[in-house]
Design goal:
By secondary structure, the protein is α+β, with helices and mostly antiparallel strands. The protein has 11 helices and 4 strands; from the N terminus they run H-H-H-H-H-H-H-E-H-E-E-E-H-H-H. Strands 2-1-4-3 form a 4-stranded mixed sheet.
Protein backbone atom coordinates (compact mmCIF):
# COMPACT_ATOMS: atom_id res chain seq x y z
CA UNK A 1 0.00 0.00 0.00
CA UNK A 2 2.97 2.32 0.71
CA UNK A 3 4.13 1.97 -2.90
CA UNK A 4 0.62 1.92 -4.37
CA UNK A 5 -0.26 5.28 -2.87
CA UNK A 6 2.77 6.79 -4.65
CA UNK A 7 2.19 5.11 -8.00
CA UNK A 8 -1.45 6.14 -8.43
CA UNK A 9 -1.75 9.03 -10.95
CA UNK A 10 -1.87 12.50 -9.39
CA UNK A 11 -2.04 10.91 -5.95
CA UNK A 12 -5.84 11.07 -6.23
CA UNK A 13 -6.50 8.02 -4.09
CA UNK A 14 -4.06 9.09 -1.39
CA UNK A 15 -5.19 12.73 -1.22
CA UNK A 16 -8.90 11.94 -1.47
CA UNK A 17 -8.76 9.29 1.22
CA UNK A 18 -6.68 11.52 3.48
CA UNK A 19 -9.22 14.36 3.21
CA UNK A 20 -12.19 12.10 3.75
CA UNK A 21 -10.50 10.45 6.69
CA UNK A 22 -9.86 13.79 8.36
CA UNK A 23 -13.47 14.78 7.67
CA UNK A 24 -14.68 11.54 9.22
CA UNK A 25 -12.69 12.17 12.39
CA UNK A 26 -13.98 15.75 12.60
CA UNK A 27 -17.54 14.42 12.57
CA UNK A 28 -16.83 12.74 15.90
CA UNK A 29 -14.49 15.34 17.36
CA UNK A 30 -16.93 16.22 20.13
CA UNK A 31 -17.07 12.58 21.22
CA UNK A 32 -13.30 12.42 21.73
CA UNK A 33 -12.89 8.92 20.28
CA UNK A 34 -10.37 6.84 22.12
CA UNK A 35 -9.20 3.23 22.13
CA UNK A 36 -12.38 1.90 23.71
CA UNK A 37 -14.15 -0.78 21.71
CA UNK A 38 -17.25 1.28 20.91
CA UNK A 39 -15.28 4.24 19.63
CA UNK A 40 -12.97 1.94 17.69
CA UNK A 41 -15.93 0.34 15.91
CA UNK A 42 -17.34 3.76 15.12
CA UNK A 43 -14.05 4.89 13.63
CA UNK A 44 -13.77 1.75 11.53
CA UNK A 45 -17.33 2.30 10.30
CA UNK A 46 -16.43 5.79 9.13
CA UNK A 47 -13.36 4.45 7.36
CA UNK A 48 -15.32 1.75 5.56
CA UNK A 49 -17.58 4.40 4.09
CA UNK A 50 -14.90 6.94 3.30
CA UNK A 51 -12.61 4.35 1.71
CA UNK A 52 -15.39 3.28 -0.65
CA UNK A 53 -16.11 6.89 -1.62
CA UNK A 54 -12.45 7.77 -2.02
CA UNK A 55 -11.95 4.88 -4.42
CA UNK A 56 -14.16 6.77 -6.89
CA UNK A 57 -11.61 9.59 -6.95
CA UNK A 58 -9.07 7.14 -8.33
CA UNK A 59 -11.18 6.70 -11.47
CA UNK A 60 -11.42 10.40 -12.37
CA UNK A 61 -8.06 10.77 -14.21
CA UNK A 62 -8.67 7.54 -16.11
CA UNK A 63 -12.12 8.71 -17.22
CA UNK A 64 -10.68 12.07 -18.38
CA UNK A 65 -8.01 10.22 -20.31
CA UNK A 66 -10.57 7.94 -21.99
CA UNK A 67 -12.75 10.89 -22.99
CA UNK A 68 -9.79 12.44 -24.82
CA UNK A 69 -9.43 9.40 -27.11
CA UNK A 70 -11.21 8.80 -30.44
CA UNK A 71 -14.55 7.04 -30.01
CA UNK A 72 -13.52 3.60 -31.34
CA UNK A 73 -10.31 3.47 -29.35
CA UNK A 74 -12.10 4.91 -26.33
CA UNK A 75 -14.65 2.10 -26.32
CA UNK A 76 -11.97 -0.58 -26.52
CA UNK A 77 -9.93 1.03 -23.78
CA UNK A 78 -13.03 1.51 -21.65
CA UNK A 79 -14.12 -2.10 -22.06
CA UNK A 80 -10.68 -3.29 -21.05
CA UNK A 81 -10.56 -0.85 -18.14
CA UNK A 82 -13.99 -1.98 -16.91
CA UNK A 83 -12.92 -5.63 -17.07
CA UNK A 84 -9.72 -4.97 -15.15
CA UNK A 85 -11.49 -2.75 -12.64
CA UNK A 86 -14.26 -5.27 -11.98
CA UNK A 87 -11.75 -8.07 -11.47
CA UNK A 88 -9.56 -5.95 -9.22
CA UNK A 89 -12.63 -4.83 -7.24
CA UNK A 90 -13.69 -8.45 -6.75
CA UNK A 91 -10.24 -9.51 -5.55
CA UNK A 92 -9.99 -6.44 -3.30
CA UNK A 93 -13.44 -7.09 -1.80
CA UNK A 94 -12.66 -10.77 -1.25
CA UNK A 95 -9.38 -10.01 0.49
CA UNK A 96 -11.00 -7.35 2.61
CA UNK A 97 -13.83 -9.69 3.62
CA UNK A 98 -11.40 -12.41 4.69
CA UNK A 99 -9.13 -9.99 6.54
CA UNK A 100 -11.52 -7.50 8.11
CA UNK A 101 -14.77 -9.36 8.48
CA UNK A 102 -13.58 -12.86 9.28
CA UNK A 103 -10.31 -12.22 11.11
CA UNK A 104 -10.96 -8.89 12.80
CA UNK A 105 -14.70 -8.65 13.46
CA UNK A 106 -15.43 -12.32 14.04
CA UNK A 107 -12.36 -14.10 15.36
CA UNK A 108 -10.59 -11.26 17.18
CA UNK A 109 -13.38 -8.95 18.36
CA UNK A 110 -16.21 -11.46 18.49
CA UNK A 111 -14.45 -14.38 20.17
CA UNK A 112 -10.89 -13.77 21.29
CA UNK A 113 -11.59 -10.61 23.32
CA UNK A 114 -14.57 -12.31 24.97
CA UNK A 115 -12.35 -15.22 25.97
CA UNK A 116 -9.51 -13.19 27.48
CA UNK A 117 -11.30 -10.26 29.09
CA UNK A 118 -11.10 -10.33 32.90
CA UNK A 119 -14.05 -10.32 35.26
CA UNK A 120 -15.82 -7.00 35.75
CA UNK A 121 -13.65 -4.58 37.71
CA UNK A 122 -10.59 -6.85 37.62
CA UNK A 123 -7.30 -5.96 35.90
CA UNK A 124 -5.98 -8.00 33.00
CA UNK A 125 -2.73 -9.87 33.58
CA UNK A 126 0.41 -8.65 31.80
CA UNK A 127 1.12 -11.76 29.63
CA UNK A 128 -2.44 -11.74 28.24
CA UNK A 129 -2.31 -7.98 27.61
CA UNK A 130 1.05 -8.23 25.83
CA UNK A 131 -0.17 -11.13 23.68
CA UNK A 132 -3.36 -9.24 22.80
CA UNK A 133 -1.45 -6.12 21.77
CA UNK A 134 0.82 -8.34 19.67
CA UNK A 135 -2.18 -9.85 17.89
CA UNK A 136 -3.67 -6.39 17.36
CA UNK A 137 -0.38 -5.15 15.91
CA UNK A 138 -0.44 -7.97 13.33
CA UNK A 139 -4.07 -7.26 12.47
CA UNK A 140 -3.30 -3.58 11.84
CA UNK A 141 -0.53 -4.59 9.44
CA UNK A 142 -2.89 -6.98 7.63
CA UNK A 143 -5.66 -4.38 7.42
CA UNK A 144 -3.38 -1.53 6.36
CA UNK A 145 -3.67 -2.05 2.57
CA UNK A 146 -7.45 -1.73 2.87
CA UNK A 147 -7.72 0.96 5.57
CA UNK A 148 -4.39 2.76 5.48
CA UNK A 149 -4.87 5.87 7.57
CA UNK A 150 -6.86 4.65 10.54
CA UNK A 151 -4.58 1.61 10.89
CA UNK A 152 -1.56 3.94 10.87
CA UNK A 153 -3.07 6.02 13.68
CA UNK A 154 -3.89 2.98 15.78
CA UNK A 155 -0.56 1.23 15.10
CA UNK A 156 1.32 4.31 16.27
CA UNK A 157 -0.66 4.38 19.53
CA UNK A 158 -0.59 0.73 20.66
CA UNK A 159 3.18 0.67 21.29
CA UNK A 160 6.10 3.11 21.50
CA UNK A 161 7.47 3.90 18.03
CA UNK A 162 10.69 5.50 16.83
CA UNK A 163 10.72 8.56 14.58
CA UNK A 164 10.01 7.52 11.02
CA UNK A 165 8.41 4.19 11.88
CA UNK A 166 5.24 3.47 9.94
CA UNK A 167 2.90 0.53 9.58
CA UNK A 168 3.25 0.96 5.81
CA UNK A 169 6.93 -0.01 6.15
CA UNK A 170 6.41 -2.74 8.74
CA UNK A 171 6.71 -6.32 7.43
CA UNK A 172 3.56 -8.34 6.91
CA UNK A 173 3.04 -11.15 9.46
CA UNK A 174 4.55 -14.43 8.33
CA UNK A 175 2.41 -17.59 8.38
CA UNK A 176 3.42 -20.07 11.05
CA UNK A 177 2.43 -23.65 11.96
CA UNK A 178 -0.62 -23.94 14.21
CA UNK A 179 -2.24 -26.59 16.38
CA UNK A 180 -5.02 -27.83 14.10
CA UNK A 181 -6.43 -30.11 16.80
CA UNK A 182 -6.80 -27.22 19.22
CA UNK A 183 -8.41 -25.06 16.54
CA UNK A 184 -10.98 -27.78 15.85
CA UNK A 185 -11.72 -28.08 19.56
CA UNK A 186 -12.22 -24.32 19.86
CA UNK A 187 -14.58 -24.36 16.86
CA UNK A 188 -16.72 -26.94 18.68
CA UNK A 189 -16.57 -24.74 21.78
CA UNK A 190 -17.81 -21.76 19.76
CA UNK A 191 -20.69 -23.80 18.36
CA UNK A 192 -21.63 -24.82 21.91
CA UNK A 193 -21.56 -21.24 23.18
CA UNK A 194 -23.67 -20.10 20.20
CA UNK A 195 -26.20 -22.86 20.91
CA UNK A 196 -26.49 -21.81 24.58
CA UNK A 197 -27.04 -18.21 23.47
CA UNK A 198 -29.75 -19.40 21.09
CA UNK A 199 -31.48 -21.14 24.01
CA UNK A 200 -31.44 -17.86 25.90
CA UNK A 201 -32.83 -15.97 22.90
CA UNK A 202 -35.59 -18.48 22.17
CA UNK A 203 -36.78 -18.42 25.79
CA UNK A 204 -36.16 -14.73 26.54
CA UNK A 205 -33.57 -15.48 29.22
CA UNK A 206 -31.30 -12.52 30.06
CA UNK A 207 -27.67 -12.87 28.97
CA UNK A 208 -26.54 -11.97 32.51
CA UNK A 209 -28.55 -14.83 34.07
CA UNK A 210 -26.16 -17.74 34.74
CA UNK A 211 -27.27 -21.14 33.45
CA UNK A 212 -26.22 -24.72 34.00
CA UNK A 213 -25.21 -27.14 31.27
CA UNK A 214 -25.39 -30.92 31.15
CA UNK A 215 -23.49 -32.97 28.58
CA UNK A 216 -23.41 -36.61 27.52
CA UNK A 217 -19.70 -36.78 26.81
CA UNK A 218 -18.26 -38.47 23.74
CA UNK A 219 -15.12 -38.10 21.62
CA UNK A 220 -16.18 -34.61 20.47
CA UNK A 221 -16.48 -33.20 23.99
CA UNK A 222 -13.30 -31.68 25.46
CA UNK A 223 -13.57 -31.07 29.22
CA UNK A 224 -10.20 -29.29 29.28
CA UNK A 225 -11.99 -26.30 27.71
CA UNK A 226 -14.67 -26.33 30.40
CA UNK A 227 -13.49 -23.17 32.14
CA UNK A 228 -13.56 -21.27 28.86
CA UNK A 229 -17.02 -22.66 28.09
CA UNK A 230 -18.36 -21.53 31.48
CA UNK A 231 -16.92 -18.06 31.00
CA UNK A 232 -18.05 -17.34 27.43
CA UNK A 233 -21.52 -18.89 27.82
CA UNK A 234 -22.07 -17.54 31.37
CA UNK A 235 -22.54 -20.94 32.99
CA UNK A 236 -22.30 -21.76 36.66
CA UNK A 237 -21.60 -25.43 36.01
CA UNK A 238 -20.92 -27.92 33.21
CA UNK A 239 -21.76 -31.42 34.40
CA UNK A 240 -21.27 -34.72 32.59
CA UNK A 241 -24.33 -36.98 32.80
CA UNK A 242 -25.22 -40.44 31.53
CA UNK A 243 -28.91 -39.82 30.81
CA UNK A 244 -30.94 -37.02 29.29
CA UNK A 245 -32.63 -34.68 31.78
CA UNK A 246 -36.36 -34.41 31.10
CA UNK A 247 -36.98 -30.74 31.91
CA UNK A 248 -34.24 -29.20 29.76
CA UNK A 249 -33.67 -27.55 26.41
CA UNK A 250 -31.41 -29.66 24.24
CA UNK A 251 -29.04 -29.21 21.31
CA UNK A 252 -26.34 -31.21 19.55
CA UNK A 253 -22.86 -30.07 18.53
CA UNK A 254 -21.36 -32.49 16.04
CA UNK A 255 -22.22 -35.72 17.91
CA UNK A 256 -22.27 -34.40 21.49
CA UNK A 257 -25.62 -33.92 23.24
CA UNK A 258 -26.05 -30.91 25.53
CA UNK A 259 -28.91 -29.95 27.85
CA UNK A 260 -29.77 -26.67 29.57
CA UNK A 261 -31.94 -27.34 32.67
CA UNK A 262 -34.81 -24.85 32.76
CA UNK A 263 -36.59 -25.85 35.99
CA UNK A 264 -40.16 -25.79 34.71
CA UNK A 265 -39.52 -22.98 32.19
CA UNK A 266 -39.59 -25.33 29.22
CA UNK A 267 -42.66 -25.49 26.98
CA UNK A 268 -42.82 -29.18 26.08
CA UNK A 269 -45.02 -28.61 23.04
CA UNK A 270 -42.73 -25.92 21.63
CA UNK A 271 -39.65 -28.01 22.36
CA UNK A 272 -41.17 -30.97 20.52
CA UNK A 273 -41.92 -28.75 17.51
CA UNK A 274 -38.33 -27.57 17.45
CA UNK A 275 -36.98 -31.10 17.73
CA UNK A 276 -39.30 -32.33 14.96
CA UNK A 277 -38.14 -29.48 12.74
CA UNK A 278 -34.48 -30.33 13.41
CA UNK A 279 -35.18 -34.02 12.79
CA UNK A 280 -36.78 -33.29 9.40
CA UNK A 281 -33.80 -31.14 8.43
CA UNK A 282 -31.19 -33.77 9.32
CA UNK A 283 -33.17 -36.55 7.67
CA UNK A 284 -33.24 -34.52 4.46
CA UNK A 285 -29.55 -33.73 4.82
CA UNK A 286 -28.73 -37.41 5.39
CA UNK A 287 -30.72 -38.42 2.31
CA UNK A 288 -28.73 -35.99 0.14
CA UNK A 289 -25.40 -37.27 1.52
CA UNK A 290 -26.42 -40.90 1.00
CA UNK A 291 -27.47 -40.10 -2.56
CA UNK A 292 -24.07 -38.59 -3.24
CA UNK A 293 -22.20 -41.53 -1.69
CA UNK A 294 -24.44 -43.92 -3.63
CA UNK A 295 -23.19 -42.43 -6.88
CA UNK A 296 -20.34 -44.73 -7.99
CA UNK A 297 -18.91 -42.10 -10.35
CA UNK A 298 -18.65 -39.62 -7.50
CA UNK A 299 -16.98 -42.12 -5.14
CA UNK A 300 -14.52 -43.29 -7.81
CA UNK A 301 -13.61 -39.90 -9.30
CA UNK A 302 -13.75 -37.51 -6.34
CA UNK A 303 -10.60 -36.94 -4.25
CA UNK A 304 -10.31 -39.32 -1.31
CA UNK A 305 -10.55 -36.46 1.19
CA UNK A 306 -13.83 -35.24 -0.33
CA UNK A 307 -15.34 -38.72 -0.10
CA UNK A 308 -14.09 -39.05 3.47
CA UNK A 309 -15.67 -35.71 4.37
CA UNK A 310 -19.01 -36.89 2.99
CA UNK A 311 -18.80 -40.10 5.03
CA UNK A 312 -18.06 -38.02 8.13
CA UNK A 313 -21.14 -35.90 7.37
CA UNK A 314 -23.18 -39.10 7.10
CA UNK A 315 -21.95 -40.35 10.48
CA UNK A 316 -22.63 -36.99 12.14
CA UNK A 317 -26.13 -36.79 10.66
CA UNK A 318 -26.96 -40.35 11.75
CA UNK A 319 -25.79 -39.58 15.30
CA UNK A 320 -27.86 -36.38 15.41
CA UNK A 321 -30.96 -38.17 14.11
CA UNK A 322 -30.59 -40.90 16.72
CA UNK A 323 -30.21 -38.36 19.53
CA UNK A 324 -33.16 -36.29 18.30
CA UNK A 325 -35.43 -39.33 18.14
CA UNK A 326 -34.45 -40.33 21.67
CA UNK A 327 -35.07 -36.79 22.92
CA UNK A 328 -38.48 -36.65 21.23
CA UNK A 329 -39.40 -40.02 22.79
CA UNK A 330 -38.34 -38.75 26.24
CA UNK A 331 -40.40 -35.56 26.01
CA UNK A 332 -43.39 -37.36 24.51
CA UNK A 333 -43.86 -39.63 27.50
Amino acid sequence: MYILRRLLPFGVFSIGLELLYKTGLMAFEADKPDFAAAELLKTFGVMLLTTAIATLYMLIPYMLFLLSLPAARRNGKLDRAVTVFMYASFVFALLFEKTASFVFWDEFSGWYLEMVKPAYGQPIDRPTLDATIGFFDKLMRMLHPFMPFVTEEIWQDIAPRRDGESVSLAPMPEPAPCDETLLEQVELLKETVTAVRNVRKQRNLPAKEPLELRVIADENYHPELGALLRKTANLTDVETVAEKPADAASFIVKTTQYFVPLDGKIDVEEELKKLQHDLAYYEGFLASVRKKLGNERFVQNAPAQVVENERAKQNDAEAKIKALKERIATLGR
